[in-house]
Amino acid sequence: MLSFVEENYLKAIYHLSNSGAEAVTTNALAEEMHTTPASVSDMVRKLSKKEVVHYKKYQGVNVSEEGKLIALRVIRKHRLWEVFLVQKLDFNWDEVHDVAEQLEHIKSPLLIQRLDEFLGFPKYDPHGDPIPDENGQFTESKREALSNTETGTTGVVVAVEDSGTAFLKYLDKVGISIGSKITVDDIIEFDGSMDITIDQKKSITVSKTVANNIWLA
Amino acid sequence: MLSFVEENYLKAIYHLSNSGAEAVTTNALAEEMHTTPASVSDMVRKLSKKEVVHYKKYQGVNVSEEGKLIALRVIRKHRLWEVFLVQKLDFNWDEVHDVAEQLEHIKSPLLIQRLDEFLGFPKYDPHGDPIPDENGQFTESKREALSNTETGTTGVVVAVEDSGTAFLKYLDKVGISIGSKITVDDIIEFDGSMDITIDQKKSITVSKTVANNIWLA
DNA sequence: TATTTTTTTTAGATAAACCTAAACAGTATC
DNA sequence: GATACTGTTTAGGTTTATCTAAAAAAAATA
């Protein structure tokens, strides 16, 4: 049985190795965990002894098969709680993260099973991120960053890459949410910004940075 | 901000001083917390420095006004989560305690406020124990043990004294739950057992022991 | 290739929550 | 009132997760 802290490290390692380099460096992990490289070295050695990560000195870390499953179960809990908070308790999607960060560590398989059922077995969280099942399996879906599409493309927003408050507030302001239908009207070559129409009503221009953070399907 | 462990000590001190002696002894607290008297001494000194308990060496402990409010807020969270587990996630009332023991330490005033609202501002948990408000105030209610009533009395079950699995299973079997309407048809003087009617439908006989553990209002 | 810089690890310390063993305070018994 | 007993506290040690400072390894640069 892993501690809260160990679970959080595992989640961070899984997350980092899923978004870039194959081996997660000590410094990157220290930054992600808001701690020092020295602390990371200690913890990683401990996780390695528990066989939930693969680790060789100076070579970075990666989750083991067992560690990956543990990380995915924590992610599952996190995302199910986010659905609960938004759908049942009327939280805004930018208010849920800190609370879900706590709730994800509650240990009770029955609780998660019942919560899943209560929520109607959701497959995506309020940010559009997929919810793995208890075996760590995702319901696969093809998706594409808005910034990768061509003029004339139409798609539905299924996820956002950046879950930070600032970005979500911006999306609320311009009227984009999960489920919004977006049509690409024009792409400005100069800076990669895009003219888009939201739900066939409102037309706006979004920067390349914004377009990079919106997933369509 | 208190740690999980400190919150649990505070809850235990509050609980013990509310059910017996005025000053809680080190040994009693050690037993309640499943730890050693030495550990209790350490912790109590620490809580005293934080001014959440009153403590003089060799004289036992008691919660301070501030400590009492903290303890009551933890109890509030515990009981609200119990209501959630039973009402929304279909837990049996004898399955909720361990999970609520974890959930009670989640720190988010907004979460508790919204949960309270979602549950319809319940005043009692599934065992009939009263839920304090955020200021530690209980909604007072007059209640009476079934065993203390007279023939002809009608009342609603508002609480059970014994929350053990065996008793709760028995109540489920005979069809008594919180909210059941009970009419006292006859009292057998010989052993104090009672003939009662449940919800104006089913008539059964309950022993004095059972009647002692059911609260009516 | 030698040297500098960056990254990573180790060494040694700290705080929280616990432990065992020993000392001390308070109470009961003779 | 001295002695024994029980209850409580202190002393010293452990584990977990952190830190700073220093050492070691790897990478970058001259």
Task: Explain what you see.
Chain A is of the alpha+beta class and 217 residues long. Among the domains of chain A are: 4-63, Orthogonal Bundle (Arc Repressor Mutant, subunit A); 144-216, Ferrous iron transport protein A (FeoA) (SH3 type barrels). In chain A, the strands form 2 sheets. In chain A, strands 3-8-4-5-6-7 form a 6-stranded antiparallel β-sheet. Chain A is built from 8 helices and 8 strands; from the N terminus they run αααββαααββαβββαβ. In chain A, helix 1 crosses helix 4, helix 2 packs across helix 3 and helix 4 (65-87) packs across helix 5. Chain A is globular and about 55 Å long. The first copy, chain A, has helices at residues 4-17, 26-32, 37-49, 65-87, 97-103, 109-118, 165-174, 208-212; strands at 53-55, 61-63, 144-145, 154-160, 181-187, 194-198, 202-206, 214-216. Chain A binds chain B through residues 85, 88-91, 95, 98-99, 102-103, 106-108, 110-111, 114-115, 117-118, and chain B through 85, 88-91, 95, 98-99, 102-103, 106-108, 110-111, 114-115, 118. The structure holds a DNA duplex (30 and 30 nucleotides).
Quick recap of the structure?
With 217 residues, chain A is of the alpha+beta class. Helix content of chain A is 41%, strand content 16%.
Shape of chain A: globular
Q: Superfamily at the CATH H level of the domain at 144-216 in chain A?
A: Ferrous iron transport protein A (FeoA)
The helicity of chain A comes to: 40-55%
DSSP E strands of chain A, number: 8
Tell me the distance between the termini of chain A: 38 Å
What integer value in Å does the Rg of chain A equal? 19 Å
Largest sheet of chain A: 6 strands, antiparallel
The name of the CATH topology of the domain at 144-216 in chain A is SH3 type barrels
Kindly state the mean pLDDT of chain A as a whole number?
93
Low-confidence stretches of chain A: none
Strand content of chain A: 15-25%
In DSSP terms (H or I, runs of 4 or more residues), the helix count of chain A works out at 8
Q: Give, in spatial order, the strands making up the sheet with the most strands of chain A.
A: 3-8-4-5-6-7
The most extensive contact between chains is:
A-B, 19 and 18 residues
What is the C-level CATH assignment of the domain at 144-216 in chain A? Answer: Mainly Beta
* Architecture (CATH level 2) name of the domain at 144-216 in chain A: Roll
Oligomer: homodimer
Structural classification of chain A: alpha+beta
